[in-house]
Amino acid sequence: MNIEKLVRNNILNLKPYTSARQSHTDGILLDANENSFGTVAEDLNDLDFNRYPDPYQKLLRKKTGDYLGIPGTNLFFGVGSDEVIDLLIRIFCEPGKDNVIVCEPTYGMYKVACDINNVEVINAPLNEKYDLDYDAIHSGVNENTKILFLCSPNNPTSNLLDKNIIRKLTAELNLIVVIDEAYIDFSGDEGFAKEALHTPNLVVTRTFSKAWGMAGLRCGYCIAQEEIIGLLFKVKMPYNINKLTSMTVAKAVDNAGVKDEYVKEIIEQREFLFDELKNNKKIINVLPSDANFISFKVENPHEVYNYLEKNGIIIRDRSGQFNFQGYLRVTVGTPEENKLFLKKLNEIL
Ligand SMILES: *Cc1c(COP(=O)(O)O)cnc(C)c1O
């Protein structure tokens, strides 16, 4: 696998910006036009807000790497995993020429990020079980296909994808395979993090937004071999991860036990919600979930959505997505939230 051959020429030839804090973080710092006098902001943790953050993301790479049992050199952090998705498209896909494969119904950001970058999206739909269609993916690929985006557990279908098909595709196809594991903590599966370390064209993205409960901090990352990590560092904005986010996330990683507790409670509530929805005769189908949400099919999705909204309960209407007619998606909430949701749902059904 020659990764260089998949990279856009302008990225290969790019002379990256060299930022001041790359070379020096100590001394009399008169190199970055910062305010040497101090900061107007309240700096409760003495983070020196007047100085730019660490462009190498050393703290987060070390902490998260230790937590995962993966070298920090195989990690790259973005402003949410959404930033990582965008950067991968910009590294590998020549606008107006190259294309990307997605398997719908799936997470909408892959297509949005491609549209923004003027990169064509080819849909190789999931099969009737909402799992990968090996043949559809193979026939979707052409000589300009650079990335295959997979989401496992998949949003909005909530299932883990077949790992052996993923392995087979990754070995056979001359392209980058991105596995979006935003919901992996809820699945009981270890995912592909370790496999990414010895698979040159595999990138696993993860996020602190879901199980870790830090969506407001905007922090996601990917795991890949150093060649791809190097490309991401080459193209990212020099100071993409700010000091508050970095410190807060690093401290949270020390408290992973709290995340595990949340995951346990969310899974308990997921099973409760699933059973309740399953027992409702008015609901046409409920998809089993490896994630922290449940998608269910009703006759009149818009009516149900609107009634819940009117009652202050906001879910997601996914009925317009490809091959997902009639489906609504509800996030697993607290016991009180879930009971109220079920009560109002029963009223409208
Ligand atoms: C929520 C979600 C993300 C979001 O990631 P951020 O780290 O918050 O940008 C990524 N992928 C999928 C499939 C998601 O559902």
From TrEMBL:
Pathway named in the protein's UniProt entry: Amino-acid biosynthesis; L-histidine biosynthesis; L-histidine from 5-phospho-alpha-D-ribose 1-diphosphate: step 7/9
Signal peptide span: none
Group of enzyme by EC: transferase
Boundaries of every Aminotransferase class I/classII large domain copy: 26-345
GO BP field: L-histidine biosynthetic process
Record-linked Pfam families: Aminotran_1_2
Keyword Amino-acid biosynthesis attached: yes
Cofactor(s) recorded in Swiss-Prot or TrEMBL: pyridoxal 5'-phosphate
Gene Ontology MF terms: histidinol-phosphate transaminase activity; pyridoxal phosphate binding
InterPro entries assigned to the protein according to its UniProt record, in alphabetical order: Aminotrans_II_pyridoxalP_BS, Aminotransferase_I/II_large, HisP_aminotrans, PyrdxlP-dep_Trfase, PyrdxlP-dep_Trfase_major, PyrdxlP-dep_Trfase_small
Protein keywords: Amino-acid biosynthesis, Aminotransferase, Histidine biosynthesis, Pyridoxal phosphate, Transferase
Catalytic activity: L-histidinol phosphate + 2-oxoglutarate = 3-(imidazol-4-yl)-2-oxopropyl phosphate + L-glutamate
Keyword Transferase among UniProt keywords: yes
Annotated SUPFAM superfamilies: PLP-dependent transferases
Modified-residue entries (N6-(pyridoxal phosphate)lysine), positions: K210
Catalytic activity, EC: 2.6.1.9
Family membership noted in the UniProt record: Belongs to the class-II pyridoxal-phosphate-dependent aminotransferase family. Histidinol-phosphate aminotransferase subfamily.
Subunit and partners: Homodimer.
Descriptive protein name: Histidinol-phosphate aminotransferase
Native species: Melioribacter roseus (strain DSM 23840 / JCM 17771 / VKM B-2668 / P3M-2)
